[in-house]
Design a protein that fits this description.
The complex is a heterodimer of chains A (251) and B (598).
Chain A: E1 4-15, E2 20-31, H1 36-46, E3 66-69, E4 72-75, H2 81-88, E5 92-96, E6 103-105, E7 108-109, H3 111-120, H4 142-148, H5 159-163, H6 174-185, H7 192-199, H8 213-217, H9 224-232
Helix pairs in contact in A: 3-6, 6-7, 6-9
Chain B: E1 7-18, H1 22-34, E2 40-43, E3 61-62, H2 73-83, H3 90-109, E4 131-132, E5 137-138, E6 142-143, H4 149-163, E7 167-169, E8 172-180, E9 183-191, E10 196-207, H5 228-235, E11 240-241, E12 246-253, H6 263-266, E13 270-272, H7 280-283, H8 293-305, E14 310-312, E15 317-323, H9 329-335, H10 337-347, E16 356-365, E17 369-370, E18 376-378, E19 384-390, E20 395-396, H11 409-430, H12 441-452, H13 459-473, H14 480-499, H15 511-535, E21 557-565, E22 568-575, H16 579-582
Parallel strand pairs in B: 1-2, 1-10, 2-7, 10-19, 17-20
Antiparallel strand pairs in B: 3-6, 4-5, 8-9, 9-10, 11-21, 12-16, 13-15, 14-15, 15-16, 18-19, 21-22
The chains are: A alpha+beta (251), B alpha+beta (598).
């Protein structure tokens, strides 16, 4: 079982002090179930402590360690060496920061800038519906919740935004759309009109090319494009339907 | 070198919150809901509040639903008291548990996507140690959002914080608390992206920096949980409480350390050593694999120490197996889907036909910064530090005593977040304007020292050595000689760290510089954990001494540990609050010094 791989990591680097960027090649031996975050740590401990990369939970729940590996945006904490070799059919990997925000150093991007687009879609209940009389919580059946629960699983890794072909300048991005759409579908939100205004603004779903790259790369396997398609086909009418009245495409 | 160690600017606010996870954000939102004009600044070390460690909490949130016909708050109080090995504070237990359902409602009304039952009400689950009728029956007490309850909490609270205009300083460190005449007036903050120090002056400062799991090698904690809040108060000359109370979960997945929940064993999973022997039969002939957490953790560590573990060559970690191969497809595919998925994702193992590697994993720090039941930081057993509050895992009020029950941690975060917020508001009414002072020189000298050192060593390797040593000597098993060795090793590691030079002197997003700073915090935390573990010559809750395997109620008090210089730890005591017992109310006898037996 003591199998190891000889890997070559070509990592895109950037030094904010000199404003210089370059590609640095690291060769390392690594066991089969080491993850790419472990490889970065190994480089720090054994070869080059100056390589900067970001992570937090390192088990696929926070989205901090998203990078592009051979062009594919993914979570470095979930990519095992032997899976990477099998998937990309090579032991040579080009690793770059996500292109959703300015790079701070090496693989670290300024996520705060990327999140500004999420802030703009108001990631909270703008105006909660009044509670039913006598109840302390809203009643939402599992069936109702099922319509949008997948969209609540977004971890804000911005892989979808990175893969999106609609461009970054005009479009708020797939994950921002998802955050807005969740709250149109959530029966607790009263401010449906305000939400729809954002979704159908000139930075909203009209920018989407329906290429489905977002769904393809989502590490949480959320079908982001499905939710955007619902909005594009006008499933959420101006009066703000209850989620129970929205149907899935296959219903 | 780009950037300078000078203070680039000064920011003024009413409330400075350090740490933007569950506790910090709940506190911020409470303050702004009650008094929208309050100027709140929240600092987080991660790149965005959504990346906080709270978001990894899976299971649920314990709270007694007043509509539940069987469950009562007194049962939950009893379970918490018993679980704590009689070392939680009863005033805190009462306060948190009586407020718990209100907090669930608060979160639901603000958009948390709780899982629902067929009637559309909140679903509930059961967890170990939660019972009805004082241990007689299983309680279904935990509400949840699928397997991502913590993420739901962070998403909801972050949204509310954005809605109410909290200013965030992301990817920033809290470097040094600032005081004026014994009153906390803010904190010196180091902004990583800009590579500069800013002084944030605040009428009230709230510490909510989370845990210290990175002290240990295998941990469920995120990369940033380096005990910064504990180090911050220690460096300010204040004590921490019960640092020796550290919880280990018996089965972490080798590699990422993620929890492989008890469910694996309750569904029939069997622990095996390298000879494939089902070894739990030797340690707990009756309960076998279903024995309590601490017993299972010790059994696994004993097997590993007796060379009956298996070495994972990739991670260099010895482990035992959990065998799930005999379980039906239904159990694998439906009941254990998520956990089985973790083995697939992080170890490339199919639990249906392969053995899965597990090892006890550090999980939670019960100890922390001593506070009142309102989150006010205490100088000693009773006096408070005006203007300074601590909430969540970095704090010890103490709700968990020496052992925390499942689903009680995120409950503590949000309830204490709210109480802290209420108290901060009260304090703001009379708090004077924060006065600028010449403080902050200590830290800048410290950073200058990091940049000046030129020894050839590697910060990452020193950190790994520290973590391996703490796991071996101050982990699941502890003994007089082992801990004494640990204290000596820590001194050596500290000396190594002090000499280690950095490969880059830049201040901008210099990860190595940050890790150097974290290493000092890890060393400080490790030292107080070890020193307190040495002092407590008994076993209590998660603190297990091989040489003193029984609880000894001569030690029925909280440890207070302060450290004026590295390695020089002084001790005090805080009595355990037993107000429920002393009130002689209904069932008061359940709240005496009872045995922790399940």
């Amino acid at each position: 079982m003591a199998e190891t791989y000889s890997l070559t990591l070509e990592i895109k680097r950037y030094d904010p002090d000199s404003r210089r960027s370059w590609t640095q090649t690291y060769n390392l031996e690594a066991g089969r179930i080491l993850r790419f975050v472990d490889l970065f740590r190994k480089i720090n401990d054994e070869q080059d402590p100056s390589l900067a990369w970001n992570s937090s939970c390192e088990h696929g729940q926070c989205g901090t360690c998203a990078v592009k590996v051979n062009g594919k945006p993914l979570l470095a904490c979930e990519l095992l060496v032997e899976n990477a070799v099998a998937f990309f059919r090579t032991a040579k990997f080009r690793i770059e920061p996500l292109d959703v925000a300015p790079v701070v150093r090496d693989l670290v991007v300024d996520l705060e800038k990327a999140y500004e687009k999420l802030d703009r879609v108001k990631p909270y209940l703008i105006d909660p519906e009044p509670l039913p009389p006598g109840a302390d919580c809203y009643a939402i059946t599992p069936r109702e919740l099922d319509f949008y629960v997948d969209a609540t699983r977004c971890i804000g890794c911005f892989c979808c935004a990175s893969a999106c072909i609609a461009g970054r300048a005009g479009f708020l991005g797939p994950n921002a759309m998802l955050a807005a759409i969740v709250r149109v579908m959530d029966p607790r939100e009263k401010a449906k009109k305000e939400r729809l205004k954002i979704i159908y603004s000139d930075q909203g779903v009209a920018r989407c090319h329906s290429a489905r790259a977002c769904s393809h790369v989502c590490p949480k396997e959320i079908d982001v494009a499905h939710f955007i398609a619902l909005a594009k086909e006008g499933r959420f009418c101006q009066d703000g339907p209850k989620t129970g009245q929205t149907r899935r495409p296959n219903d | 070198m780009k950037g300078s160690l000078k203070i680039a600017s000064t920011l003024n606010c009413d409330v400075l919150i350090i740490g933007a996870g569950g506790a910090g954000l709940r506190c911020a939102v409470e303050i702004l809901e009650k008094k929208p004009s309050t100027r709140v600044i929240a600092v987080t070390k991660v790149s965005h509040p959504q990346k906080s460690h709270t978001s990894t909490a899976q299971g649920g949130l314990a709270a007694v639903d007043p509509h539940d016909p069987a469950d009562r708050t007194i049962y939950h109080m009893f379970d918490t008291w018993k679980g704590s090995d009689c070392t939680a504070d009863q005033n805190v237990i009462k306060k948190i548990i009586e407020a718990s359902w209100q907090e669930i409602v608060w979160l639901e009304n603000r958009g948390l996507h709780f899982s629902r039952n067929e009637e559309g009400k909140l679903s509930k689950r059961t967890f170990g140690g939660h019972t009805l009728f004082f241990g007689e029956a299983t309680a279904y007490r935990a509400v949840f959002e699928a397997d991502r309850t913590g993420k739901g909490i962070v998403d909801t609270l972050w949204g509310e914080a954005v809605k109410r205009g909290v200013s965030f300083l992301n990817q920033s460190l809290a470097a040094e608390l600032l005081f004026k005449d014994g009153r906390c007036v803010g904190c010196l903050i180091f902004k990583q992206k800009e590579g500069e120090f800013v002084r944030v002056l605040a009428k009230a400062t709230v510490l909510a920096t989370g845990g210290s799991g990175q002290v240990f090698r295998v941990t469920t904690n995120c990369r940033h949980n380096t005990g910064d809040g504990l180090a911050l108060v220690l460096q300010a000359g204040l004590p921490v409480m019960d640092p020796e109370a550290v919880q280990f979960h018996p089965t972490g997945i080798v590699g990422p350390g993620i929890l492989a929940s008890e469910a694996l064993r309750s569904e029939g999973g069997i622990l095996r050593n390298k000879d494939l022997e089902p070894f739990m039969e030797r340690y707990a002939p009756k309960m076998k694999d279903l024995a309590p957490r601490d017993l299972v953790a010790r059994a696994i560590e004993t097997e590993v120490r007796a060379s009956r573990g298996i070495l994972n060559p990739d991670h260099g970690i010895e482990h035992v197996w959990i065998d799930l191969r005999h379980l039906s497809d239904y159990i694998h595919d439906c009941k254990l889907r998520e956990i089985s998925g973790f083995f697939g994702k992080f170890a490339n193992i199919n639990p249906k036909n392969e053995l899965c590697p597990v090892r006890p994993s550090n999980h939670y720090h019960m100890g922390g910064i001593p506070t009142t039941e309102w989150g006010e930081v205490q100088k000693n057993g009773d006096k408070i530090v005006p203007g300074l509050f601590a909430l969540g895992e970095c704090a010890a009020a103490s709700f968990h005593g020496f052992n925390r029950l499942a689903t009680n941690s995120i409950l503590e975060l949000i309830t204490m977040g709210r109480f802290g917020g209420e108290k901060v508001l009260e304090y703001l009414k009379e708090a004077p304007e924060a006065i600028p002072d010449e403080a902050g020189t200590l830290t800048r000298a410290r950073f200058a020292g990091y940049l000046a050192a030129d020894g050839r060593d590697n910060i990452g390797q020193i950190r790994q050595a520290l973590r391996a040593m703490m796991t071996e000597k101050v982990g699941v098993f502890r003994s007089e000689s082992g801990i004494a060795e640990a204290v000596e090793s820590l001194k050596e590691l500290k000396a190594r760290a002090d000499k280690a030079g950095l490969s880059s002197r830049s201040l901008v997003m210099n990860q190595e510089l940050i890790q150097r700073w974290e290493l000092d915090n890890l060393l400080d935390c490790s030292m107080v954990i070890a020193a307190a573990a040495l002092e407590r010559r008994e076993s209590r809750g998660a603190h297990f001494r091989e040489d003193f395997p029984k609880r000894n109620d001569d030690y029925h008090y909280h440890t207070l540990a302060a450290m004026t210089e590295f390695g020089r730890v002084s001790f005090g005591r805080r009595p355990v609050d037993m107000s429920l017992y002393q009130a002689r109310g209904e069932n008061y006898e359940k709240f005496g010094l009872i045995e922790r037996k399940y």
